[in-house]
Write a structure and sequence with these properties.
alpha/beta; Rossmann fold; Serine Threonine Protein Phosphatase 5, Tetratricopeptide repeat; nine-stranded mixed beta sheet; 16 helices
């Protein structure tokens, strides 16, 4: 049965913006639709910084009536209606004084999903709260209904005049770009461990398996809290399909906006990151073949497929090209899925080095992320001798790319000294 995916990224335009929500959509859009939906066929709708809550409601209602599995990826900021004290998802025109009229009430989302069949719906969120919402969350729970699988995080307000990045959702999208969709609880845990390794702490972690009961929200502290089950039916490793992106039905009556109400694309036209007409002519999307190999436990085959793509990208564009770097990152994730932390660490180190060699600054998020992930995988290498051999390279790179996690270089040095005493 076809699946449905709604990608919703919303935040106010202007000084009220807490997070650059729409920046994650290109990364999500590069994920094969089948991986996003966990089904063989899928319809994907993208909403970038929408203006009107009624327009969002129209698309949400259409998605909620889809008979197959439904996955919502929601990125944005929570704001509290100061009169009714209810949380809302801020939209492009939302200000603290106009939340009641210009933002999407969270209750609307709950109501539209209320009649969904149990086990068919999942919501993945990356939200930043304004001060009032953050205070509200101390005594309340944000949920999507007792039978809806909910995963994600809510971050506290960023510093004054700062605009945060949707790092949790971007990490989720990056993992999915490998073509592999682990069960959502595993995907959630992996994303949380990565952003915790990159220095993001103090968030609320949302987890609900969808089998009953209200989702919990508690301090992450870098430790993922994962439900015991409740992954929606059909949300297994998916296959790539054609992406059909349609605008909201109410968009025609809404004023124009520079970011657009939704991204519209005629049926049959491929989007970035999905197979084009050549795929139907016998050149299958490589992510599908890689995903199938991983699902079957053929990790060597999956890596070989990605390695061929990496070599082709290196020949075509050089080691600093986006395509070559993408396939290096895919291979790093494939090594992790295969349980080979050493190879994953080596590959992430190579990714970071390639980005630096290509002229990317040491504080660029992709460079920091590569080093942070190498650091994380290094700590998972079971053989002390092998970990000891990689330690100097990681320490050298940490000296050049300290990242946002305070004391990361000191941690590497301490661990390396401890490993050396075991020699």
């Amino acid at each position: 049965m076809p699946g449905a995916v709604l990608l919703l990224a919303a935040s106010p335009v202007g000084k009220g913006r807490l997070v650059d929500a729409a920046s994650v959509l290109p990364v999500l859009a590069a994920v094969p639709p089948g991986v996003l939906a966990g089904t063989d066929t899928a319809n994907v709708v993208e909403l970038a910084d929408p203006l009107e809550p009624q327009a969002v409601l129209t698309r949400l209602r259409a998605a909620a009536t889809a008979p197959g599995p439904l996955t919502l990826f929601v990125t944005g900021q929570l704001q509290l209606d100061r009169r009714a004290h209810q949380p809302h998802l801020a939209l492009a025109r939302t200000t603290p004084a106009s939340v009641r009229y210009t933002a999407l009430p969270w209750q609307w989302l709950r109501e539209e999903l209320r009649l969904r069949a149990p086990g068919t719906t999942a919501v993945v969120v990356d939200l930043h709260a304004d001060p009032e919402s953050w205070a509200w969350l101390r005594g309340h729970t944000l949920d999507c209904g007792h039978h809806i699988a909910l995963y994600g995080r809510i971050a506290p307000p960023p510093g004054r005049r700062a605009v945060a990045a949707p790092t949790y959702m971007r990490t989720v999208a990056t993992i999915l770009r490998s073509g592999v969709r682990p069960p959502l609880d595993q995907l959630h845990q992996l994303a949380l461990s990565r952003i915790a390794g990159e220095g993001e702490v103090g968030d609320l972690v949302l987890t609900a398996g969808g089998a009953g009961g209200m989702p919990g929200a508690g301090p992450s502290g870098g430790v993922p809290v994962v439900p015991s089950g409740g992954v929606p039916a059909g949300h297994a490793l998916g296959h790539p399909v054609r992406r059909t992106v349609v605008p909201p039905a109410a968009a025609a009556t809404a004023p124009a906006h520079p970011h657009g109400q939704a991204v519209a694309r005629p049926a049959g036209v491929a989007a970035a990151g999905e197979p084009g007409p050549e795929a139907e002519a016998g050149c299958p999307d490589p992510h599908a073949a890689i995903a199938a190999a991983v699902q079957a436990g053929r990790h060597t085959e999956a890596d070989a497929l990605a390695a061929r793509r990496e070599q082709a990208a290196l020949t075509a564009g050089g080691p600093g090209s986006d395509e070559a770097l993408h396939w290096m990152e895919v291979r790093a994730d494939l090594a992790m899925f295969a349980g080979d932390a050493e190879r994953s660490c080596r590959t992430w180190l190579a990714v970071a080095d390639a980005r630096l060699t290509a002229g990317q600054p040491a504080d660029a998020p992709p460079v920091e992320a590569a080093v942070d992930r190498a650091h994380h995988q290094w700590g998972r290498i079971p053989d002390p001798a092998r970990a000891r051999a990689l330690g100097p390279a990681l320490a050298d790179l940490r000296g050049r790319v300290p990242g946002r996690r305070q004391g990361a270089l000191d941690h590497v040095r301490r661990q390396l000294r401890q490993l050396q005493t075991q020699a």
